[in-house]
Automatic annotation (TrEMBL):
Catalyzes the ATP-dependent phosphorylation of L-homoserine to L-homoserine phosphate. Residues 205-276 form the GHMP kinase C-terminal domain. It comes from Paenibacillus mangrovi. The keyword Kinase applies. It catalyses: L-homoserine + ATP = O-phospho-L-homoserine + ADP + H(+). GO terms for cellular component: cytoplasm. It comes from the Bacteria. This is Homoserine kinase.
Length: 322
């Protein structure tokens, strides 16, 4: 049933891979984007915030197009939409900004027409659009998600991240597109490297499930993508090698980068040391970067309410970072 007053949804950022779980593992992070969607007489797309620059505001807009895919799948017609978007998630930095837009569009459009599609269906659609399930799974379901994609359907298990886990991300100022960061990967790898990654990815999931934080640093090691991507992110190779000596539980490239992500015990007394080490290492390479402390987000995509009680910006005020 159509929600005439529209819907307001919030979608978390995400990190993918967590080292060895390439195209498999994702975790939602406490950095968000918001989408408001309402049926309209004529399509209007309003984008707010600096992360939205250059995004189209006509019917070629990704959120508009994905919303139409949901309506088509559900067999309803809603050709004209009022869409509002704001995001605190930096673009093309490896924090799942595109996945959050895809998931937000699917989730908001489905909610607008009374949620006829299941979350599993939305996950399949999101994965087909993004091509891999790691970021979209985390953005949709929240928490830690391990998923398998066969080209049509994604099977997944969601886990609650351990309560002691905190996340430090170091976000370089430069952008790195996922397609560029996938181009540098080899088409084939040795059996030795395959075993290296399967064993670590399996250990990492089990360690995260059982709260074995002592195993995280060794389990987050990877030979499938990080060694090849290191040349795209100055300072990355050194940081991957030494961050644990400066207080990280584990360290990885966040998704396709260029952000680096450290898992940290929130009770650690070495947080300042770790942050300074990461920023100084980047600086020594001539890379400007900012550090941001985040939490794993238990919430995935969430319906916050309708668009009836105020303007989009008033509705999200107090929640946004900027
Ligand atoms: N698993 C993906 C990659 C995440 O590493 O290329 C980026 O979208």
């Amino acid at each position: 049933m159509m929600q005439p007053e529209g819907v307001l949804v919030r979608i978390p950022a995400s990190t993918a891979n967590l080292g060895p779980g390439f195209d498999t593992l994702g975790m939602a992070l406490s950095l968000y984007s918001w989408i408001g969607m309402k049926e309209a007489r004529q399509t209007v797309i309003r984008l707010y915030g600096s992360e939205m620059e250059g995004i189209p505001t006509d019917k070629s807009n990704l959120v508009y197009k994905i919303a139409q895919m949901v309506f088509c799948e559900a067999g309803v017609q809603v050709p004209e939409l009022e869409i509002s978007m704001y995001s605190d998630i930096p673009l093309t930095r490896g924090l799942g900004s595109s996945a959050s837009a895809i998931v937000g569009a699917l989730f908001a459009a489905n909610a607008l027409i009374g949620s006829p599609l299941t979350e599993a269906k939305l996950f399949d659609m999101a994965t087909a659009i993004e091509d891999h399930p790691d970021n979209v799974g985390a953005s949709l379901f929240g928490g830690l998600v391990t998923a398998v994609w066969d080209g049509l359907h994604a099977d997944y298990i969601r886990m609650e991240p351990h309560e002691d886990l905190e996340v430090l991300v170091v976000i370089p100022e430069f952008q790195l597109s996922t397609s560029e960061a996938r181009k540098v990967l080899p088409v084939q790898i040795s059996r030795k490297d395959a075993v290296y990654n399967i064993s670590r990815s399996s250990l990492l999931v089990a360690a995260l499930a059982q709260g074995r934080l002592d195993l995280i640093s060794r389990a987050m090691s990877d030979r499938l993508h990080q060694p090849y991507r290191a040349k795209l992110v100055p300072g990355m190779a050194e940081i991957l090698e030494k961050a644990v000596q400066h207080g990280a539980l584990g360290i990885a490239l966040s998704g396709a980068g260029p952000t680096l992500l450290a898992l940290v015990d929130r009770h650690s007394d070495r947080k300042k040391e770790l942050e300074a080490y990461l920023l100084n290492t980047m600086k020594a390479e001539g890379i400007r970067a900012s550090a941001c402390w985040l939490n794993p987000s238990s919430e995935g995509a969430q319906l916050l309410g309708s668009m009836s009680s105020g303007s989009f910006l008033e509705l999200i005020k107090g929640e946004v970072k900027a």
